[in-house]
């Protein structure tokens, strides 16, 4: 009988990746929409986008951490660890891009370039769009690791014995 | 002046992106290779070896990996960054399983 599922370290990664995926993709859409809105509605959706960005960026680094823990186990079993390495590199680029967007958010909130708020907002959104691209690519590679190579998956015997 | 500040801020914001671009690793055929340990990840019993022909091998030790120095069995903590090593690897799919690692110095 295998150990309880939740105790397998490599499974902390799928437990933590889905929040940043949803938060950061939504944050990117919200920030883009907020750019074309005017007045109070723009201010509101900018704030919503900022909260999602902060939660998502923190979640992204947590996912990078749990992914690093999972790597030691998964890379020894799958047939193509190069794919896992690409997944890791893409995830780092994604996390750093959203962190960069977060830094620009702080600059805006500190009123450090007061007269260029719109430029900063556009720049932040563009970086987030880049981050979202990496996020989708990272997710695609992660899915390949799981669904094509059974990374982190206990494959039951064909007769399902023991289940 | 303002434009300079904007550009500086933008540079600071995207600078981590370039830092985040790590190195890709290579796949080689089964065989024996000499190189230098570029990185040791003790908690994962993993090493990166840069070979003479500039290939970067990422090797995860298995239960079957033998580690020796001067003909004697060595422990993983004897592997240091910069150590010269000879590695015998077996290619399984695109995975490189280290069969034997000899510390050369």
From TrEMBL, chain A:
DUF2231 domain span: 13-153
Transmembrane segments: 17-37, 49-69, 89-107, 119-137
Key words of the record: Membrane, Transmembrane, Transmembrane helix
Annotated InterPro entries: DUF2231_TM
A Pfam cross-reference name: DUF2231
Source organism, top-level taxon: Bacteria
The protein's name in its UniProt record: DUF2231 domain-containing protein
């Amino acid at each position: 009988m295998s150990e309880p599922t939740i105790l397998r370290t490599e499974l902390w990664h799928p437990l933590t990746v889905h929040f940043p995926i949803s938060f950061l993709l939504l944050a990117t859409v919200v920030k883009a929409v907020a750019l074309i809105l005017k007045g109070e509605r723009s201010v509101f959706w900018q704030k919503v986008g900022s909260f999602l960005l902060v939660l998502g960026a923190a979640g992204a680094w947590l996912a990078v951490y749990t992914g690093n823990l999972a790597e030691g186990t998964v890379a020894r079993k799958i047939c193509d660890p190069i794919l896992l390495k690409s997944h890791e590199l893409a995830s780092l680029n994604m996390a750093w891009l959203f962190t960069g967007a977060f830094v620009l958010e702080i600059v805006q909130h500190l009123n450090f370039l007061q007269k260029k708020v719109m430029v900063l907002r556009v720049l932040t959104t563009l970086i987030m769009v880049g981050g979202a691209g990496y996020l989708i690519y990272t997710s695609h590679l992660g899915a390949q690791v799981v669904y094509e190579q059974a990374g982190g998956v206990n494959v039951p015997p064909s007769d399902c014995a023991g289940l | 002046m303002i434009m300079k500040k904007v550009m500086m801020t933008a540079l600071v914001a995207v600078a981590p992106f370039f830092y985040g671009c790590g190195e890709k690793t290579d796949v080689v055929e089964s065989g024996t290779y000499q190189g230098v340990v570029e990185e040791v990840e003790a908690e994962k019993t993993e090493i990166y070896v840069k070979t003479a022909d500039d290939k970067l091998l990422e090797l995860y030790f298995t239960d079957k990996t033998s580690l020796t120095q001067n003909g004697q069995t060595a422990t993983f903590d004897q592997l240091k960054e910069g150590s010269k090593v000879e590695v015998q690897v077996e290619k399984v799919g695109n995975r490189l399983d280290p069969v034997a690692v000899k510390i050369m110095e």
